[in-house]
Amino acid sequence: MLHRLSIPGFSSKRRFDDLSEREVLALAISSEEEDGQIYLAYAARLAKDYPASAKVFEDMAAIEGQHRRALIELYKKRFGETILPLRREHVAGYYTRSPVWLIENLGIERIRREAEDMERRAREFYLAATARATDADTRKLLGDLAAAEAGHEATFERSVERHLEGDARGEEDAAAHRQFLLTWVQPGLAGLMDGSVSTLAPIFATAFATQNTWTTFLVGLSASVGAGISMGFTEAVHDDGKLSGRGAPWKRGIASGVMTALGGLGHALPYLIPQFWTATFVALAVVFLELWAIVWIQNKYMETPFLRATFQVVLGGALVLGAGILIGGA
Question: By the number of CB atoms within 10 A of the CB, which of 175, 189, 263, 322 ranks highest?
């Protein structure tokens, strides 16, 4: 099969500065159309869990449609019925849209930021293009487009105020916070607890049985990494999040796996210190900090009463630590 030759320095894309007024107007029409479709995609994504925000994006899609129709009328008046099929990807240097709307379980705050960024980048681009234009008609056209994008920003803010007034914004923020807890905090906390507590026995048993810091470190490293991989895969494959609403499995798997490994590595790394008792005292201090970190996270994010969390975590950790020391010293 013959392949297309690639000539250095040659691009099939047109430079924005080289576009005619007809082409700029065609590009604006296709851009407005694409933005409207993105807003509708966001609205569909949010309709179930965040109905008020979904209405905001439906409003924005409708406004994009109005601007697109106005641009089409202007185009037909100046250049006829046939609109050039010119899109963002055909123009070098033109701002592009990252396809974040294709990401499953995209958070509400991320979507809001993306929408604000869409309007801001479009307005900034048209303003910059207006400053570079030398043709009077082109300059006016680009200025009008910049003003239209500035109007989009104001309209978005008004729509947010209208649909998210009163309890609606609070309810959606609470739902987003709950999703954050289910997707990141809960799996991460479970991983940290498992990594910190479950590795205490093998690490300290090895330490007191051998009194060899390098051997203890290798056992701790293997136990921590192995537990992290196991917990990460378990969290990722046992629940796809569709029925439970706990979020994307890969996110939960990363949170659980990474925190499990870190929980074990915390008291394994001190055994890189050659002196056994120095390494052991440092490791015990790290264990103390790990357990109190778990208590703090439980109290702050999971709303577990501080005394109950302290009793559960410290008692459990102390029992496992004591078992490891007793077994290793036997």
Answer: 263
- For residues 236 and 35, give the distance between their C-alpha atoms in angstroms, rounded to a whole number: 33
Residue 4 is assigned to a structural domain of this protein: no
95 and 175 inside one domain: no
Question: Is pLDDT above 90 for 206?
Answer: yes
With a cut of 70, say whether residue 256 has pLDDT above it: yes
Total number of domains constituting the chain:
2
Tokens of 282: 């440092």
pLDDT > 70 fraction of the chain, expressed in percent and rounded: 82
Domain extent for 150: 14-164
Last residue of a domain, one of 118, 147, 164: 164
Q: Which pTM value belongs to this model?
A: 0.58
Q: What is the mean pLDDT of residues 321-325?
A: 82
